[in-house]
Amino acid sequence: MPRAPAAAAAWFEAGLGLCALLLLPLLATVPHGLAPLAAWAALCAAGLVAANRPPRLAGFSMPTGILGGLLLWGAVSAFWAIDPARSFVLDLRLGGLFLAALALLAAAHRVSAPWRIALCLFAGAAVAVALAAYDLLSAGGLTGLVSVRGFRSARLDQIAIGLAILLLPASAMLAARGRPAMALASAAGAGVFVLLLDGVSAKIGLLASLPIMGLLYWQPRGTARLAAALSVLFILTAPLTLPKLERIPGLVAAADSFKSSAGHRLLIWSFVGERIAERPVFGWGLAASRAIPGGNQEARLGQNWLSLHPHDAPLQVWLELGIPGAVLFAALVGLLWLRLDRLPGPRLYQVAAGSGLTAALAPVFAAYGVWQEWWIGTLALVLFLIVVMGRAATTAPAPTPPPLRDWRAAGH
Question: Can you tell me the distance from the alpha carbon of 244 to that of 269, in angstroms, rounded to the nearest whole number?
């Protein structure tokens, strides 16, 4: 590589290292800051790709086609959406975010020092855990400095989810590099911290990822195919299953006794199922969730039927984009499962990445809005880091040189 492009690539890679360092601390303090961080990471990624010509685009056609199909259908749906202007604006934002994700994925294969990026992630994780622990123990000592809202333990859900997704892949990378004790210690420490926090979806994702990791190690190809098929089936049948949970006698009350938002979520899904049934083919239009007729009415005291989004990605895609959107979304999730074996790294790392995918799907299926910029930015950066850590796992650490013999011992 000529000197000028090499120097530029080094600077762009340093920028990506900074993003890896800031990812988890931002999730612990100001999660919405992930949207601008992802934008900066995308610029660095695009620069790194441009500095490492020629570009290698093998394997990008299918994810690009799926994401492009979602964008195109989202733009078309704006013509019958409740708020066409909002739909078009969101579609443009999604276009930028999808391009950022593809640029980061391409750059992950061009990073010259993947271990250095991983070290930045570990340093950021240590800072994030310290910040979150201080905020939790001080009941908002940090929150008061960065937010006008009062402290709620749910504010730490995002850092819990980030740790749950990256925990096992990072530990597997350490094990692959000959650091099993460090891998076990980091996995145990981060895992206990996730379980101590309030985030239910993070706990469910982490606990579900453990048996999935075992199954993937035992039967990698068969388990990945089964997981892909079940994910696709869950997404495509979501309007027929999730809305009916509210009708099970006593389930809403049991969910309320566990967590008030859990019972409310069942009511939301029931309402969303009825709206999907009204327009199952074309949907209500991109970004229509916050303006669905009847959504701002109270389901019960202090809780509306649908305020912003259904807290379930399959239902939101069905509600807004109908059958075409649901099929494209299902294809995207299925593709992630089927391409686990294309990740760099040894078998242990690939199955750990599958466990990370399991942990990521828990909040995708039960927590955030599918189009939230900070959430898509987080997932794009996490995917970048998982590919980079896979490359770090394939790079054997330099052997430790033998100690120099004392000159006085010469000949003995």
Answer: 8
Instruction: Please state the domain extents for the chain.
Output: 56-94+130-145+153-372
Q: Which residues of the chain fall below pLDDT 50? A: 398-401, 404-412
Q: What is the C-alpha to C-alpha distance for residues 101 and 104, in angstroms, rounded to an integer? A: 5
Q: Tally Cβ neighbours within 10 Å of residue 382.
A: 22
- 380: Cβ contacts below 8 Å, ≥ 6 apart: 38, 41, 42, 97, 100, 101, 104
SS3 (DSSP) at 129: helix
pLDDT in tens, 261-319: 788 889 999 999 999 999 999 999 999 998 899 888 887 888 889 888 899 999 999 99
Q: What is the pLDDT of residue 18?
A: 96
C-alpha angle with apex 52: 49 to 58, nearest 5 degrees? Answer: 65
Planar angle of CA 120, 123, 125, nearest 5 degrees: 110
Query: Which helix H or strand E contains 303, and what residues bound it?
Result: strand 303-304
Position 224 scores a pLDDT of 95
Q: How far is residue 309's CA from residue 364's CA, in Å, rounded to a whole number?
A: 12
CA angle 259, 263, 264 (to 5 degrees): 110
